[in-house]
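Work Package 3 (structural annotation) set out to generate three-dimensional models for the target panel prioritized at the project kickoff. During this period the team completed the workflow that converts sequence records into discrete structure tokens, so that structures can be stored uniformly alongside our sequence database. As a representative example, we reproduce one entry of 70 residues exactly as it appears in the project archive.
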Amino acid sequence: MKDVAKPKRMTVKQVADELGVSVPRVHQLIQEQRLPAEKLGRDWIIESSDLEKVRDRPTGRPPKSNKGIY
């Protein structure tokens, strides 16, 4: 019988460290529904497998558009 590994559950702080972003940024990703999370008491819990949904995101701000500027 195979051992089926359960997905690791992570806190917002652990996710921030793993992704190299701030805790508020993780909260923003959760609020934007880009990172699935479950509220457990006062804390958010994220499955480690869900990090792939935001891991390859572009860094920094998007470039400014020059359209409409004269």
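The two ends are 68 Å apart (CA to CA).
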